[in-house]
């Protein structure tokens, strides 16, 4: 442990002779300037300059203060950027980019509807019309309309003279967890707001690096940001509320309806299907398919996209399509595409019949399209061998899938209604009856087997490492197969397809060999050839597979892997579900003990108590102690479980001289510290630099832990290797509350460090008048001389501080009364 901040500037140049003389330069003397000398007794005007070490230290301190201030600002800005990046997530804007732009001349009618006009022109001084809720059938075109409104409002806000922030989020049930959750919404809104105003990054200052964002902490930061923009107004567009959990949506609407949060400065537009039904007192509503403008948009689309030469036939087809569409824009888009293909194939004479055959229900239309697609593939399946996998999927889906427009593109259904049809409405079972019973689980198991077959191909097994640069050409599917085999197995296990047999024969050696290829190709996860399957599953958050693993070892078994043990691999990679499962399995038959008792008191994963440590420089050697590493890099619960399971000398020291108690206090683990004290840990055992646990708690400004140690009898006057007592350390930390506790507990206020400085020297040197007054009130000597003869009164005189000990009564009771009056 390094000496606490502020110590180095105090002790610098305290050695050697007690005085130095510095002559004034000839130029200075020539101008007749008078100079002062400080002789330790007073200030005299002698016409020359004699500088003692006090003045040198003061100048040096100013230079150090400037350097420290610059470094502090730099570190703070770096921290803010790290936290801002932690708010971002993959595919954050994927849904918005994947929505097709509104067809020419469509959607403009919406800008003139009374509901929209009342909403967009609302008076922010009144709490009315804050919300506009657009509802419509699946596939009606709600998302397209929302994207159109976003573009229109962006133009208006850019031209506005007032400060208006335009924020948006498009829920996506086909995406990852954050794309379909309100946690993702709050993170996205915060990123947009903080990117628009770089000077607002300070709202992140109370958040620690490594903090795992929760809805609660996100709300707190968002509310703080809004409050610090008192003259701004906000427009927020939120699409597809029905694609998130209803409970979370209700909570989000309640939060955004709270005038103490939004201060009547928000206009919020929602879009969803006809559910969820949530009453908003200040909301306006509009049903999309019931609007004449929407019906005219469908008519315009048909006019522009239907390519039938015969005008009479084209007119009849348009009328038939409009009547059958029932306001569902997606139905029109799909059917127009089908009719155009029939026309191009020379089947113009059957178009009327084809329209009659096509179901009017959108889900039934999906089924009809897929049945036709299967027939086509059976006739010409081999032809797809010449397509890339992406083109193959897009083609074989017959327009029901699309490629997302984002940095890491993915193929997804064109609309949530397609996904609902296949998975919620048993569309896949109607196409493939053999899947009945557990569609999702069986499909995931099939995908797992496909990946397994590819990874274990004989050609892959014989591929030479010196030809690694050719791997992505020879085996284009290898990165996906390798990276997702365990993912699909995990999903299959979650959905009820047992994976124990698969795990028992999992080709770990072949998988690790392929991992070496992938690592070189695209920064894959790094494992040694000896990595255990449990270690790999832990780092991939495969909690279901960990449960099913038939031959798992202890999560504390040391391996020659980057994070030593599976439990740290889970924590380092943010695999919290895997971490929970590992702990539950490890503690299944935990014997009763003090550590077991405290282990059970701590929640499985407390997100807000302690910041996750930085694993960037994590290195473990055989000489290192595993438990010390678990305390330094793991969680409090992990450390308690290890102590409950494994015999350990709790007073042993690591290579840096730290006891377990010292290490626990360094991390702020108060429950672990209490358990160690109950088990007899040495409370004042010195560690690195002679720091006791109490010194360590005070360096961290951890009042709770410091008081715990004092209550258990910690030595409050013991000095470290530099002679600093706990009282002096609390003064370096500017901790008046803790200093008062120590003084009232009987700490020696006259003790000196290696340089003869008392606590009062330190307080006055730091310009901390309040602390100095506290010490004087308890009897500190203002004339106590340090090794170089300097007294607190000398320092005060040099700094222009007025210290009058006669202001205070001699008794501690009178001192307490004085501070009580000051509050």
TrEMBL record:
Mapped ANK repeat ranges: 689-721, 722-754, 755-787
Residue ranges of the region described as Disordered: 16-37
Keywords: ANK repeat, Coiled coil, Repeat
UniProt feature coiled coil, ranges: 59-86
Domain of life: Eukaryota
Domain Nephrocystin 3-like N-terminal: 106-273
SMART domains from the UniProt entry: ANK
Gene3D superfamilies assigned to the protein according to its UniProt record, in alphabetical order: Ankyrin repeat-containing domain, P-loop containing nucleotide triphosphate hydrolases
Protein name: Nephrocystin 3-like N-terminal domain-containing protein
